[in-house]
Design brief:
- This protein is mostly helical and 167 residues long.
- The protein has one domain.
- It is 68% helix and 0% strand.
- The chain has 7 helices and no strands.
- The protein has helices spanning 3-20, 38-41, 49-67, 72-90, 105-108, 110-133, 139-164.
- Helix 1 runs parallel beside helix 3 (49-67), helix 3 (49-67) runs antiparallel to helix 4 and helix 6 runs antiparallel to helix 7.
- The protein is globular, with a radius of gyration of 15 Å.
- The model has no long low-confidence stretch (mean pLDDT 91).
Length: 167
């Protein structure tokens, strides 16, 4: 399948799952799963930075439109996309990344994918939840939400990787 078509299909499926299923899951107001960030995580290494930012903005805006959140997800996705090249550079392998591959468990292993996704998911969730409360008055509650939501999102991301990308 063409990579562009595959990414478009991934985009549509992840937005649908997020809007229809995961936006309705909130456990005690502390755990909010955001599986849609998988789209940004799995974009190929060769994706130009400007295109990565545009795709991320469109992804976040799509979630915002269906969730009525006024740009919070769009800004968090753009922040995550902005950090992605730096995180990839930080985690780069000795020989670099193979051309034509995407950053997934089947290509680079569990430990690498876990570090990669953990850093970016924590950044996304921190940005999103601090924008949502827009103050530091309930800092401990916000930090708990960031930690628990990131943990749950990471478990969903890794589970989806093992289910979809078998060697």
């Amino acid at each position: 399948m063409n990579k562009s078509l595959k990414n478009l299909l991934r985009f549509i499926i992840l937005v649908f799952i997020q809007v229809v299923i995961l936006n309705n899951i909130q456990i005690n107001g502390f755990i909010n799963p955001y599986l849609y960030v998988l789209f940004i995580l799995l974009l190929p290494f060769e994706t130009p930075s400007w295109l990565l930012l545009v795709f991320s903005f469109i992804l976040g805006l799509s979630i915002d439109i269906f969730s009525n959140t006024l740009g919070m997800h769009a800004s968090a996705c753009v922040f995550m996309a902005y950090l992605r090249p730096y995180v990839l550079n930080y985690l780069s392998l000795r020989d670099g990344y193979e051309q034509g591959t995407s950053p997934c468990i089947s290509n680079y292993g569990f430990a690498w994918f876990f570090k990669y996704s953990m850093i970016l998911v924590l950044a996304h969730h921190s940005f999103l939840f601090f924008i949502e409360v827009f103050s530091f008055s309930n800092l401990s509650e916000t930090m708990i939400r960031i930690f628990l939501s990131s943990l749950f999102t990471l478990s969903l991301l890794i589970t989806s990787q093992f289910l979809l990308y078998k060697k």
